[in-house]
Amino acid sequence: MLLFQRLFRVDGEVLPHLAQQRLIKVRAALIIGEWLGITLLALVLHARLPLLSLALILGLHVVLNGVAWLRLCAGGAALTEVALQLAVDAACIGALVFLTGGYANPFISLLLVPLILAAVTLPPLHAWSMAIWVGGLYTLLMRFYHPLQIEVSPEAAVDMHLSGMWLNFLLTAALVAAFAGRQAATLRRRDAELAQAREQRLRDEQLFALGLQAATAAHDLATPMMSVRITLDELRRDYAGDEELAQPLALLAGQVARMQTVLDRLGDSARARGEQAGPPLPARTWLARTLERWGLMWPQARVTLEIDTQLTDSQPLLADDPALEAILVVLLNNAAQASPEAVLVRAGLMPHALALEVVDRGRGLESGKAEGWGVGLDLARATLERIGGGLAISATEAGGVSARINLPLYSAQVA
Question: What is the CATH number of domain 281-414?
């Protein structure tokens, strides 16, 4: 039973809206082709046709397409219902062929059109059922049909039959290319979107795992760090008059304070739940604050800051997200490791984004980190993609590395 439900999709699954819309367009084109064929036989070749019966069949086909359109407007038809619609299409084509010469009619191969549409859009057993149905119609039309009465010579009849086969081939090829080609493109686009979604999911899982490790590390290091601070405070009180130990102890206390600041920021980042952890800040203010905090960790680094005049003290606004600050810190760390004596930071304004460039004068793209394969840069790139930004790394003419990022501005500014 489960296999039957999986093959036939009897759980009420609805065919995608775009696929149903294309089926309706192909059916409309098929109806127009049927009407043109009957008109050609009646007016040009002067064939004796049961026009009333043919008109009723064409009208039924038009009504079927109208019902399919109404079902689409009402939310769409299920897979089984679409299969029944295609089966009725084949029956209408068979009825028209029955009244216009049976299997001798070169347009009998139009029965393949509903079969091809079913094979492209429906589950396998629906397609096989359609194959049996059109095969049965073709078999019946080999024995039961109304002969087509046209007053022409045998030679002309052969030429007309071959011309009809040629015209039928062109019509069938056009219908199949118009529908199957677009449907295949849609399927390829959907597969690409699914692959991208799977890649994004894996990346998010990695980010979650690293965030969990960061939160755990911040929690585990909090108690030892507090013990170290208390011990240092006691040592500084005990040896307050010792000039030899006062300076080293003060240096250690300063380093411990910086480590505590890093742990606090790490904990804040891990606890952040939204895209915006605080009120928006002017981009110039945010940049100055980030560089000041980073400078406590890299006091030996020499940073040159170039800011575009479009960045004022109040505009534009940037979301105060710890993730954005962490991205810039990663780039600054890489630049400081490559050339601590010369780090250049440029800031400019783009449409709806803050453009930042961090340039060093190191060895260029020789190391793995510079190429963007380091964990920090991988996380920075993934975070930027998640929030709608971008990261690009390239070599500079001076031999260093330029890392360019686009940080999305605060949404109120974009609007």
Answer: 3.30.565.10
